[in-house]
Amino acid sequence: MNKHYETLELNRILELLKDETSCEDAAEMALAIQPSSDFVTVCQLLSQTEDAFSLLARFGAPSFSGLRNVNGPLTRAAAGGALSQKELLAIGATLRSIRTLYEWRSHCSGVNTSLDYLFESITVNKYLEDRIFACIISEDEIADKASELLSDIRRKIRAKSSSVREKLDSMIHSPHYTKFLQEPIVTQRSGRFVVPVKAEHRGDVQGLVHDTSSSGATVFIEPVSVVEANNDIKMLQGKERDEIARILYELSSEAGTFAEAIKLSYEAAVKINLIFAKAHLAFKMKAAKPIVNAEGEINLHSARHPLIDKNKVVPIDVSLGEAFDTLVITGPNTGGKTVSIKTIGLLTLMTMCGLLIPASDKSKVSIFDKILVDIGDEQSIQQSLSTFSSHMTNTIDIMSQADESSLVLIDELGAGTDPTEGAALAVSIIEYLRKKGAKIAATTHYAELKAYALDTAGVTNGCCEFDVETLSPTYRLLIGVPGRSNAFAISQHLGMDEAVIENAKRIIGSNNRDFEAVLEALEEKRHELENELEEAAKATERAKKMESRAQSEKDKINTLREREMDKAKREAEKLIEQAKRRSSEFLLELEKLKSEQNDTNVTEIAKKTRRAIKNQMGEMDDLVNPQELAEHWDYDYKLPREPKAGDAVIIRGVGEGEIIEVSNDRVYVKSGLLKTRVKLSDIMLVEKKKKEIKPQRSVYRTSSRADSDVTTELDLRGMNTEEALQALGIFIDKCVLNGMSEVRIIHGKGMGVLKKAVQEELRHHPNILEHRLGRYGEGEDGVTIAKLK
């Protein structure tokens, strides 16, 4: 690996990536990754990783189990070679893994990704996969159903073996042979069935000797009676081997036919495995996709070094290449300077490898042709080089390679020699690299470089914060702020004599004292600004919460208003329906009056008609405008005097009424048939209407309706079904309004059509509690008795 990349520990990141892969080839590809300096390629790689990360989050991880490189066996099979059972099983496992991967993608429906071309390169071969696993059980066993001939051969072998065992079992249990046997068992030697005979009785059992025990006390004899059967078994076993060889060759030939398609599918699966390994690593690092550019602009937010424990690492915000091209980082040892520039370099390399980086969203990373690094102690004993010399050797090499597409990271620039000369050399090196267009991040202890960064356009200071009270670094990187030399403060905190510290301050000279004073003032100002910013952030957060609550209340009010509007609409529709029904009743009443008209009662009929018109119009007006009077309620109204019984009033939310009784702060009022008790604040005194004025109306019921003649019996005989049901509906409504509890409906017996219609109507009517046919003395089947709710 490039030594600069190794210095930034990219190799350790690739090792972590390798651990996330599932097959050897993907692991090798992970270790062999090289950062790309091509902008389009990097963008494609990052998109692939981000898409894989998204698929992981939505659908879980795909399985790559069983995926292995079978290119060698496939090439041999394509050339006509026969493969072993182990090799064919490996091919089957790879085919199964490829199919599982393809099916997983098909379940992620409705999502288009930059990985689709790889999934489309996969060819599923379920036929060959099933053939292999149907024929081969394990590396040592072929299934009986691999072919009909193999099944037949094995069936014959089992039958012959069973026959031989039966003969030998009969022999070993025979009283004649029992005394000759070492043990009454049947065993095998060289694939032939034998019995163990005592050595001294070998001549008493006729047969072939196949083996002798290690002690010589037992000989294993194949009795003459089973020699022929054992020979048959041997021949069948030979045929079995030949058939197995034929089956393996046939499977190998088929695998060779599909070799190229399997190889291409395998290569695609390996690439997919590597991409998902990147996604797994991103998940573990809590990484995000950066915004990529090729203009040398880096702006990292909450960036974390990926090789430091995530529970201990302190995130940093760092920028380079936008407002300035050189960042000079100062601060105490072990304060995090080196980690900061390593984080810049390593996250840039990770981006160029197509890896998501452990930083917040919208972090910006640039692509560079070269990343040149001098970090660490490069002292070489073999070459007799001091630390300064080795660093200068590296720096000279960096200076020779750097150009406008280079990122240069140098730790402790100019250190290891005389401070005055080292500082001057460091400034000169930075100037040289800036002229070549490189983007530079360097760490130093020299105050001269702090001053140089303050005075030079395009160069800015950065420092790693140090808490003097606890004598420990915070590891926070502050951009635009030079670091202080905390030697005096630390010494004083540790208890050094004040006179010694004051003498040291005099020795370093007024210029250095003034510079440190300026830095101290800047540090105090920065803390003040940070506190103010924190307070502003808190105030903004409070304002956002208040705005959110206000919006929530507004939404609740809007929802409530919409509900009330819907409720009002439903009530209006209900009133309209009631008005329509009352209109129908009114027309039916008119028709009935008309049918009753004759020469003798024309005057009476006319009076009834006028009365019905007035009553019906009053009821319909109440239905459509039930709150007419209440809507004009005066909320500032105060009673002009004490109310008394008989006063006419308007009742809030109800309408007109009359006081019946006064009791303390409440009154009993009557509105139509409604009697209730209300507060004094809910009534308004009005002038009592004269008798000839239109009868008083209420929401609940009119007086004209209550005064109408209502009987508890309805005769429907002589009407057709439609007329009878219409009259029945009006009759029930009148009875309900007048508080009737039971009614009698006469429909006659006849053919039973009218009775059936009446019964069906009563069964579904909302005001009917129950109904029955009349009993003896009530009209029997010719009437129906109904109870009202």
- Amino- and carboxy-terminal Cα gap: 94 Å
Indicate the proportion of strand residues: 15-25%
Number of strands: 25
Give unreliable regions as ranges. 378-384, 623-631, 692-708
Describe the protein.
By secondary structure, the protein is an alpha/beta fold. 50% of the residues lie in helices and 17% in strands. It is built from 23 helices and 25 strands. The strands form 7 sheets. The protein has a 6-stranded mixed beta sheet with strand order 12-13-14-10-15-16, with helices on both faces. Strands 20-19-18-17-21 form a 5-stranded antiparallel beta sheet, with no helix packed on it. Strand 22 (713-715), helix 22 and strand 23 (742-746) form a beta-alpha-beta unit. Helix 8 (126-135) packs antiparallel against helix 11. The longest helix is centred in the C-terminal third of the chain and has 87 residues, at 510-596. The radius of gyration is 52 Å and the shape is flat. It starts with a helix and ends with a strand.
Give the key terms.
25 strands, about 800 residues, six-stranded mixed beta sheet, alpha/beta, single chain
What is the compact description of this entry?
With about 800 residues, the protein is an alpha/beta fold.
SSE inventory with pairings:
Elements: H1 3-7, H2 10-19, H3 24-31, H4 39-59, H5 71-78, H6 85-107, H7 116-120, H8 126-135, E1 136-138, E2 141-142, H9 148-172, H10 175-178, E3 187-189, E4 192-198, E5 207-212, E6 218-223, H11 227-257, H12 259-285, E7 291-293, E8 298-303, E9 316-320, E10 326-330, H13 337-352, E11 364-366, E12 370-374, H14 387-401, E13 406-410, H15 419-435, E14 439-444, H16 447-455, E15 459-467, E16 472-479, H17 487-493, H18 498-508, H19 510-596, H20 602-624, E17 648-651, E18 655-663, E19 666-671, E20 674-679, E21 683-686, H21 703-707, E22 713-715, H22 721-737, E23 742-746, H23 753-764, E24 768-773, E25 783-788
Helix pairs in contact: 2-3, 2-12, 3-12, 4-12, 5-11, 5-12, 6-8, 6-12, 8-11, 9-11, 15-16, 19-20, 22-23
